[in-house]
Each structure stands twice: as C-alpha cells, then as structure tokens.
Amino acid sequence: MTSGSMTLMEVEALARTAHEGQTDKAGRPYGEHLAAVAEGVRVRGGSAEQQAAAWLHDAIEDDALTPDWLESADLPQPVKDMVLALTKRPGEPVEAYTARILATPGALLVKEADLAHNADPARLSALDGPTRDRLSAKYAYVRSLLGLTAP
Fold first, then answer.
1. Which of 18, 40, 103, 106 qualifies as a cystine partner to 113, CB 3.0-4.6 A?
2. Alpha carbons 86 and 1: distance in angstroms, whole number
3. Distances, alpha carbon 35 to alpha carbons 4, 15, 72, 94, 134, in Å
4. Is 14 exposed, middle or buried (0-12, 13-18, 19+ CB in 10 A)?
C-alpha cells in the first residue's frame, strides 16, 4: 500500500480487534472468515489494497467500525472505495449492491473471495438444512449478477 498508510499487518490487527467477539452463522470466530477472504484475494493475485479491503469488507456492515472511522482512516482511497462498495446498505436491493461492486475498481475480486468462502461446503455443512439452502441460493444469485461462474 502507499507510503504513510497503514500496513497490511496493521489493517489485519485492527480488523481482528474490531470484530473481536463476533461469530459467523456457524458460530466460528469472525476473524477466521476475514482471514480466509484476505487469503482468497491473495491467492487470486489481488493487490495489498484489495487484501486490506478484504480484512475490512464487513467492518461497517457489522458495526465493527463506523463510516466516520473509515473516512478518516490512514488508508489509500481505493481501499476505502472498495470497503464502501462491499458494504450492504439496509434495505438495498441486491442488484444495486452488485452494480456498485462492479463499478468499483478492485471490489469484484474481494467479493469473489468472500463468496467462495461463504459457499465453502465445509462451512455450509455446519448450518441447518433450510439455512444452508437459503444461503446457497443467495450466493449463487449474487455470483450470477456479478458474472462469476465457478464457486
């Protein structure tokens, strides 16, 4: 990332602290999801900025950090733009959400890694049948809107 901004390690530490005590739908520590998404971005060839956005992709949506914090954070503007693009807004249609992701440079790769981890069969197997089916259908629909084919 740019000189003078937070390092990737600082962003990771901040995200882990901000999400401390939060769990995913299967009851796992939320930091595991963030780490998996950041690693998914890295192995897909994502930049340090995209990896930073991966660590922060749910921070505002989950009330772990505030929009004001993000605005004043010592982060490159592209990271802030990706985090805002990846933040679902209350009542927002999924079509508007995915259009914003597609319109924001770098955000699609982060969302692809997020969806891949969310749809991981091992992760989904920890959920009850109706929840697993609902989420699988939701993730498939989002992938189709984003033009992503394979999970």
1. 40
2. 19
3. 24, 10, 24, 25, 24
4. buried
On the CB side of 119, CA atoms within 13 Å amount to 19
- Size of the chain, expressed as the number of residues it contains: 151
Identify any residues that bridge with 23 across adjacent strands, giving them in sequence order.
Answer: 29
Q: Residue type for 122, please?
A: A
The residue among 31, 35, 27 whose CA lies nearest residue 17 is: 31
CA 7 – CA 119 distance, rounded (Å): 29
Reduced to 3 states, what is the DSSP secondary structure of residue 29? strand
pLDDT digits (tens, 9 = 90+) for 97-130: 999 999 999 999 999 999 999 999 999 999 999 9
